[in-house]
Amino acid sequence: MEQLETLERKTDTKLYCFHCGDETPDETIYIEDKIFCCNGCKTVYEILNNSNLCNYYSIDQNPGITRKHHIKRNYDFLNDTDLKLKLIDFTNGKRTQLTFDIPQMHCSSCIWILENLYKLNAGIISSKVNFLQKKVFISFQDEKTSLKEVVELLDSIGYDPQLNLDNRKEEKIKSGYKNLYYKIGIAGFCFGNIMLLSFPEYLSIDVSGHDELKRIFAYLNILLSLPVFFYSSSYYFISAWKGLKKKFVNIDVPLALGIAVLFLRSIIDIIFMHGAGYLDSLSGLVFFLLIGKLFQNKTYETLNFERNYKSYFPIAVTIQKGKNETTIPVEKLKIGDRLIIRNNELIPADSILIKGNANIDYGFVTGESMPISRVNGEMIYAGGKQIGSAIEVETIKEVSQSYLTQLWNNKAFRKDQEREQESRIVSFANTVSKYFTITILALAVIAALIWHNNSTLAFNAFTAVLIIACPCALALSTPFALGNTLRIFGKNKFYLKNTFIIEKLAAVNTIVFDKTGTITENNSSSVEFIGEELNDDEKTFIKSVVRNSAHPLSAAIFNFIDSKIIKNIDLYDEQPGKGVHAIINGNEIKLGSKIFVTKGLKQFYDDYSTKVFLSINEVTKGYFNITNKYRNGLNETISELEHNYELALLSGDNEGEKEKLRIFFGTDNELHFRQSPQDKLDFILRLQESGKKVLMIGDGLNDAGALKQSDVGISVSDNTNNFSPACDGIMDSKSFYRLKDFIKFSNSSMKIIFSSFILSLVYNIIGLWFAFQGTLSPLIAAILMPVSSISAVVFTTVLTNILAKRRGLI
Amino acid sequence: MSVIVVLIGASLLVATGFLIAYLWAVKNGQYDDKYTPSVRILFEEEKKTEIRNKKSEIRNEKT
């Protein structure tokens, strides 16, 4: 009783769910002194409490994942052997290992509970989390449990894994990472020791009486430089060779040339006892270059930039065969199969509705969250989600040939083309390196010609030019400037796939926007009531009624009305696709479509905005007009970008908001409506054919083609972890208003690289002065090369930070 | 002066030891996940006390 009293005392402040931390309207759901927002959260608490796992709640506050929107899924399809083998990593019949993606993971408590799974299911041997990748590695005993049980367990505590068959390629990238770490370690080790052994040389210590000591040092240096030359720097030779084979001089060509000449010259110098060689400069150069590479390779492990529709589609579907229901993998689905689609299940292929009340949410495809109702015999496109009771549909197209998915057959998605593009990245450094290489080769020949009557000096001058002109500063300023820019963007919730995208972004001159979900907000809409003014009682009735409905329009109205709530509703009847009929305090409330509420004739929609009609006691009071809300700062973004860029808008919707959009976009920019996914892709292609560099900003799967085809495709997302088609960058929707800053900042980064290039040229000219005289001593090289490299790194890093601060990005 | 050769040899040996330790750490995946272990180490405490509790329980049963 005492606890109930404390509960009541708490009611004047806000109440929060003990499990997930969401605000709760009342304290009807509770265990002891703990309040829950829904029964789902309560159940999870009970499961954990029964296994003495309540430590979960003491590591982080309210760590749970809300269960309000949770729908119980049927995991029977996980008994299918074919499917099982595709999902697991390893099995020997007794023990099975697997890796699951769990995007819900967000705090220390999540790690704790996921690593203590063995306490919940005795069959689980161990589970280990990689938090940054949001993955959990589980091994279990086949005798005691099964894949299905493990998945159901995870689902029951709120961590339902993402099941798809499309994530088996990451291993490769990882081993590439390890190689880079090995190379850096070895280069660093050799660099340090070679410098140590070169100290007598640096300090001009007189070792005239100990020639054999000098030789030992020199040969040790050669020994140490071998792994640097043959292992650590191998990437540069391979890349240079690949480029040259395609008649393309990339930045690695002059680098490889410089490294090779450094090595050969040093060996010759040491063997013929001309000097100590430049092996310290060589290993230092390779070490710094690899550090630059590591810095540039910053990736966002949790984000996936390569998703296609398969990641979203279910991996198995329920089909009706005769009178039996069976589950088959989605790949085996054929035309004419009868599918059972339950609440919140996705339709995997274009189909015709056979039975049931279809209420399809295409939010997944278009970003539009209002469900659309369909009647028997009507077509349902793949990618829609059924809301409400189960329906039966018959497929009329294969999965890969459906309206949405056929987009992926377009050549923009082909792998070989992708590779082709990647090998020829047109970056500033690569463009410059062509002229650079030719120039230094010419200079080296000139230097050799000057000393043509002294072959030793001629050789010295020739190699010295190639050594000193090695564009290490340029090769370092690009990764550091762009790597830093990538990080600054990341801090502002704008995540790019790699640093090359920044250069492409800086080169863009046309920007194409998608409408729904991109420039409009997904989950909030602006609501106005048109009709008779409502009194307080009526407001209370309406708010109490819509509280019970899960329909997004109800949610919008619920947030719009500011009033109290009555809990007792005498009658509540929700008809999918029509509206709500309720009796509350003896008053009959009807909310919904015009036909449903006013019993009027079905009339042709002349207006494109969404209207919810209201009648109280059979008297029509008016309607709620619900329109999309544009994102914050859209107006400023557009008007700022308008000056320098050509803009366009592509919308899958009707022309309803054309006039409103004209205000934003002005009269010069193209607005296109009723665009299919294919239309969007073609539009981008046309722009590119007329020589434009296109930035596409979209969100849903229907933009996937356009995002892929465009020079830079950026997807806007409310939750960066779970919803984005293949793209070059993912932008958190809260950062949308910074778009202009992002584009401008990438331009600045390119300018910084350019100025750092000028700086490195100055060093080169100083070095060349020594080189031409044939007097480039190892000491001068050992000073000049690190100084130029380090100053390039410092210059670019400091400058990008200053500029970012000035733009308010950090 | 020849003692220098011995010293250089010794220093290279020690340095190689560290290099091998580093390579071994990379190979074992210490750089795969740079975040989770920092959290996981905080949980360890609880497991230890649990084991200790169990041990003391066993001891209590015996006496």
Could you describe the 3D structure shown?
Residues 1-12 and 602-608 of chain A have low confidence and may be disordered. Chain A is of the alpha+beta class. Chain A starts with a helix and ends with a helix. In chain A, 45% of the residues lie in helices and 18% in strands. In chain A, the strands form seven sheets. A seven-stranded mixed sheet of chain A has the order 18-30-29-28-19-26-27, with helices on both faces. Chain A has five domains: 2-59, no CATH class; 77-163, Alpha-Beta Plaits (2-Layer Sandwich), CATH 3.30.70.100; 172-300 and 425-481 and 748-806, no CATH class; 309-409, Distorted Sandwich (Calcium-transporting ATPase, cytoplasmic transduction domain A), CATH 2.70.150.10; 500-521 and 631-741, Rossmann fold (3-Layer(aba) Sandwich), CATH 3.40.50. In chain A, strand 28, helix 25 and strand 29 (712-717) form a beta-alpha-beta unit. With 63 residues, chain B is mainly alpha-helical. Chain B has two domains: 1-31; 33-63. Chain B has helices spanning 2-27, 36-62. The longest helix of chain B has 27 residues, at 36-62. The mean pLDDT of chain B is 77. The interface between A and B is medium-sized, with 28 and 25 residues.
